[in-house]
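Onboarding guide, step 5: your first structure request.
Type a short instruction followed by the sequence, for example:

Predict the 3D structure of this protein.
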Amino acid sequence: MLETAEGLDEAAEEAMSELPDQACTIAPVVDIVFSRWTTPILWTLNAYGKQRFVELHRNIGAITAKVLTQRLRQLERDGLLTRTYHPEIPPRVEYEISELGKSLAPLFASLADWSAANLPRVDRAREAFDAAEETAAARRRN
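The system replies with structure tokens like these:
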């Protein structure tokens, strides 16, 4: 059965009503994907493939071991990466982006394209804003 545009609008409104505290339906996704260290972790696993903790830590950089551990556990819980334990001596643990995590690649690619195309404009807008603020502050001082 085909739905009318009105039916689709009603379905959308019904879906929105099930998220009473969400003004924006993508807010949960933004919370998951764009938390402080999630993006660099997923980006690194996508770019370099399966990695051990030390390799991942080295490739990401400034993150502490404690925070990396917390984020890896959360990403595993969210299904965005897999953790494989190898019972060897010494034990070996590897992390790999999951299929669900890989499904975010087009989103990251779009954001990278947007960044390349628009960050210079953002920089110019910031410079113009800051210059206007400085001019206004100078006027207030005089």
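Each response can be followed by summary notes, for example: The chain is about 65% helix and 10% strand.
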